[in-house]
Amino acid sequence: MSFSSDVKEEIAKTAPGPRHCQIAQIATVLNHCGSLRRTKDGREELVISIERRSLYRKCFTLLRKTYNINSVSEIGDGPDDEKSGPYEIVISDKDDAVNILKGTGILGRDGVFKGFHRSVDAILIKNSCCRSAFLGMTFLCTGSMSDPKKGYHLEMVCENREQAQQIIDVMATFELEAKIICRKKYFVVYIKEGSAIVDFIGICGARVSLMEFENLRILKEMGNSINRRVNCETANIAKTVAASTRQIEDIQLIQKLYGFERLPDNLREIAEVRQGHPDASLQELGELLDPPVGKSGVNHRLRKLSELASELR
User: Fold this and answer.
1) Cβ-Cβ contacts under 8 Å for 145 (sequence gap 6 or more)
2) pTM value?
C-alpha cells in the first residue's frame, strides 16, 4: 500500500467526533461525491459515490450516528480484497434524504436546492474542530500524496474554483499555505513544503502517519546535509590538492632555473617546507615555519614564489 493510502486509511479510522463535526464531514463528502438519481418509478434517491472502501464505511457510520439512517448500500464490481470501488451509499427514503440535505445546507430552509459540487456552508465549519474534519474528509474524497522518500507533494483535486478556494481559505486558518493550479478541467490545491504537509496530516488526525512522515523527512534532510558537507569538504580537498600541485611545480622550476640559494630566507624556507609537505594546508605549513606564520603570511610567500616562477617561464 502507498503512503498516501496509509494516510487515508488512518484518517478514515479516526473517531467521528461531536455531531457538528459529523455534519461537516457529511456535507464535505456530499460536496464532492453526492448526487441525485431518479429511479425507474420516478422517485429520487440521494447517492454518494465513493472510490475507497474505507471511506464508504466511514460515510455509512456517519449517516447512522448523525441521522440514525441504516442506508441501503450497493457495492461495485471490484474484488472483495481490493480497496478501490466504486461503492455507493443510496438513501432511498425521501424524508431521510431531505433531512440530510437540509442539515448539510445543500437544501435551504426555503426549499431551494443549492446543488452539489460547491463550497460547504460556512456555518458548518465555523469551529476549528469542524474545519479539521472538513480537511480530513476532503483529502479522503479528493486527495493524494507522494511517497515522502521520493519527494514532498500533496494535492486535492476539485471540480471548480469555488471548492478549491474554500480549501485554501480553511487551510489559512491553520496557517497553512497552499496554491491552486488549473489542470485540464479541474482545479488542484497543492502543497510542496514538507513541514506544511506534516502539519496538514496532523490537523487531519493521522498521528501515526505524521510520525512516519516526520521521521522520513528528518532522515532525508540529514542525508542531504551530510551530502552537502561531504561535497563541500571534497571540493575543498580538491582545491587544496590542485593548489599544492601548482605550488610544487613552481618551486621545482625555481629550484632548477634559479636556485634556492638566491631566494630570500623567508621564501627559501616556505619552498622547502612546501616540498617536504605537499598535502599540508596553509595553516599547517605556517605552523611548521620558525617562527610560525599565519595563513595570510604563508599565502603571501607562496604567491611571491608563483610570480617568480611566472617570470622564469
Assistant:
1) 3, 4, 7, 153, 154, 155, 197
2) 0.70
215 neighbors 207 (Cβ within 8 angstroms): no
Q: Is residue 301 in some structural domain? A: yes
Alpha carbon distance 198, 33 (integer Å): 26
Amino acid at 58: K
Three cell numbers, residue 90:
443510496
Can you say how many angstroms the Cα of residue 262 is from the centroid of all Cα atoms in its chain? 66
User: What gap in Å lies between CA 269 and CA 279, rounded to an integer?
Assistant: 17
* Number of structural domains the chain divides into: 2
136 and 257 share one domain: no
DSSP 113-161: B--SSSPPPGGGG-SHHHHHHHHHHHHHHHEEE--TTT---EEEEESSH
Quote the domain boundaries for residue 179.
3-205
Output the domain CATH number for residue 154.
3.10.28.10
User: Are 51 and 170 within one domain?
Assistant: yes
Judge if 192 and 43 occupy the same domain.
yes
Domain boundary among 205, 237, 258: 205
Residues 159, 29 within the same domain:
yes
pLDDT digits (tens, 9 = 90+) for 222-256: 767 777 887 787 777 777 778 888 888 888 888 88
Residue 113 — φ and ψ, nearest 5°?
Answer: -80, 120
Please count the other Cβ atoms lying within 10 Å of the Cβ belonging to residue 237.
12
Cβ contacts of 42 within 8 Å, gap of 6 or more: none
Cα separation, 189 vs 156, in Å, equals 5
Longest dimension (CA), the chain: 114
Q: Could you tell me if residue 223 is inside a domain?
A: no
Is pLDDT at 39 greater than 60 in this prediction?
Answer: yes
Kindly give the interhelix angle for 128-142 and 161-173, rounded to the nearest 10 degrees.
140
Per-residue model confidence as pLDDT tens digits over 85-118? 678 888 988 889 999 999 999 988 777 888 888 8
- pLDDT tens column, 154-180: 999 999 999 999 999 999 999 999 999
Is residue 130 included in any domain, yes or no?
yes
